[in-house]
Amino acid sequence: MLMVHGRGATAMSMFELADVLAQPDMAYLAPEAAGRTWYPQSFLAPIENNEPGLSSGLQAIADGLDHLAAAGFPSEYVALLGFSQGACLALEFAARNARRYGAVIALSGGLIGPEGTSRTYAGSLEGTPVFLGCSDTDMHIPLARVRESAEALKRLDASVDTRIYPGMGHTINDDEVKAVRGLLATLQTRGETT
Question: Which of 31, 64, 98, 175 is disulfide-compatible with 123, CB 3.0–4.6 A?
Fold first, then answer.
């Protein structure tokens, strides 16, 4: 699993989440952003306002996937997971680099760019399971962006599970943890049968 932290967090915080997910047979990789932020402004800002950070963050995911592939874990056996800013970055990477992934998991996130950004991407996610979990009252992630992201990923042939939690705020809940554990268990089973 490649885990992408949120703004102000660290790679270590993602390893703490890995402990909660309780998948001891999984390998985890978590890059860390310089200055604890992948890009400087809101994910809703004009894309050029978040450069060069955005491109650097996307490259960190690409480098992580390359590292995992070299270690014998091709993308179809790798789950991309992000929280908050990391969820936005993971979703944007998957959409821009559509192919089969083990899973794409966005906890409180959406695709990057201002309202009206084109959501036409090339390629196919080839049935990749995508989990989008977010509150309907998240102060950072508008509900409309979560729904727009889900539709864009469905157009890329992803199998999308969107869960909206009333009044939850900007955090992770037990239902999300349970859903992610289920995805990871399925991914591990697939890996054992090949």
Answer: 98
- Alpha carbon separation from 33 to 54, 56, 64, 112, 182 (Å, rounded): 11, 9, 13, 17, 28
Q: What is the mean pLDDT of each run of 10 residues along the chain (194 residues)?
A: 94 87 84 95 97 97 96 94 97 98 97 96 97 95 97 98 94 91 81 50
Q: DSSP characters for 47-61?
A: GGGGTTHHHHHHHHH
Report the predicted TM-score, pTM, of the whole model to 2 decimal places.
0.93
Is the sign of the CA dihedral 36, 77, 161, 157 positive or negative? positive
Tokens encoding 1 = 């699993």
Q: Which residues have a Cβ under 8 Å from the Cβ of 55 and sit 6 or more positions away?
A: none
Which residue(s) pair with 191 in the sheet? none
